[in-house]
Design goal:
By secondary structure, the protein is mostly helical. It is 51% helix and 5% strand. It contains 5 helices and 2 strands, in the order αααβαβα.
Length: 112
């Protein structure tokens, strides 16, 4: 996915500089384990001009991906999430929580 975005930027003669941020570094558990790494990840995210979240497998980093998407929405930064199922499941979970129901799409250990 990153190659496609870079190629599109090149064809439009636009400069792109992508930084990789590990989604788990944005999670609160990382703040407890390694506060420096946590704050560096958030500093990197907050200095970016947009967010690109590629798809993944399983629940690892899910909280961090959701937090990055939420940050992009609140700060009105461009956001592109590659995983259609992820966006669908997040929308479903938001609806279920709004209705006062529990969401277990990502498993019992994921807190939204």
């Amino acid at each position: 996915m990153i190659c496609f975005v870079c190629d599109a930027f090149n064809k439009l003669s636009l400069l792109t500089c992508m930084q990789y941020i590990e989604a788990t570094d944005l999670e609160l558990e990382m703040k407890r384990e390694n506060a420096v790494r946590y704050h560096e990840a958030w500093q990197q995210l907050c200095s970016s001009s947009g967010v690109l979240i590629p798809g993944g497998f399983g629940i690892r980093g899910m909280e961090g991906k959701i937090l990055a998407a939420e940050w992009a929405r609140k700060t009105k930064k461009p956001y592109l999430g590659n995983d259609y199922a992820l966006s669908t499941d997040i929308g479903l979970c938001c609806l279920l929580e709004t209705l006062g129901l529990m969401c277990c799409v990502f498993g019992p250990t994921v807190k939204l």
